[in-house]
Amino acid sequence: MAETRTEALHRNAEGLDIQAPEAILVSLADAQIEAAKAVRNAIPAIAKAAEIIAGRLSGGGKLAYAAAGSSGLMALADALELPGTFGIQRDRIAILVAGGDEAFRTLAGGPEDDVEEAATAVANAGIGAGDCLIALSASGTTPYAVRAIEEAARRGAATIGIANNRDSALLRQAETAILLETPPEVIAGSTRMGAGTAQKIALNMLSTLTAVHLGHVHDGYMVNLMADNIKLRDRAARIVAAISGRGKDEAAGLLEKSGGAVKTAILLAAGADSAAAAQKILEEAGQKLRPALSALGHDPEKRKPLSGKDHARTEK
What we know:
Layout: H1 21-37, H2 43-58, E1 63-67, H3 69-86, E2 93-97, H4 103-106, H5 115-124, E3 132-137, H6 143-154, E4 158-163, H7 169-173, E5 176-179, H8 194-214, E6 217-218, E7 221-222, H9 230-244, H10 248-257, H11 262-270, H12 275-284, H13 289-295
Parallel strand pairs: 1-2, 1-3, 3-4, 4-5
Antiparallel strand pairs: 6-7
Helix pairs in contact: 1-8, 2-8, 3-8, 5-6, 9-10, 9-11, 10-11, 11-12, 12-13
């Protein structure tokens, strides 16, 4: 085995198989915590990457994820959550996983070496200038991930690499490199554990900060969510009520008028004459709720119920 951090033996691994079950679990839990802490050192790179992604999405571009194996599962989990949580259109997100749909049934190792599949997947997803691709690989040497980032760059896309080994090929190829230098795994090379945990945390941070830049987060609320089930419709009403200061029933009524759009419903509560007028204000404010509320004469910092009586704005 190559002596990279992701393949090295953990300091607590000796005699692991003859330890008491509780002792084994303590080692596993502590290793996860230690791996999670490694993400802190990557914060500057994650911040830079989020700004790039937000710029590409706001400009009409797509966001693609490319990975294999466990890293592919981390990518999939992040990508699939973006539409429901932050209202990013599904057709603006591409998920490229080595082995295609079959990977989600077998997660076979062979496809991660298929560089031609990677290049074809990038091409078929239409990734190019104006788009952004995130490639993940714990080792930083997975052929599929490295080739995907090379092809995306060749086509003019912005590229972000996430890996757990320093000076790896993926990080060298990426325009923006995110190093998650996690400790060796308690089970050597089992990167679904610590390395995967760090990748999931980094992706959570990356996509959430991107959403903040895009105006999809306000005071810790997901104000651009897609309310397509009972739970999310209830959440949307509670968000509108919390920000506008209106009752939940009134908030639900405003959501009906807005077609389910949380930001639009809040602006209706603040005095916008119609959903169309509210949407126009949002466009002028770059889809950000705080400046949109200010445009209606409200100070979002004052935490008082919104009232449109004195600050109604009509569509021109």
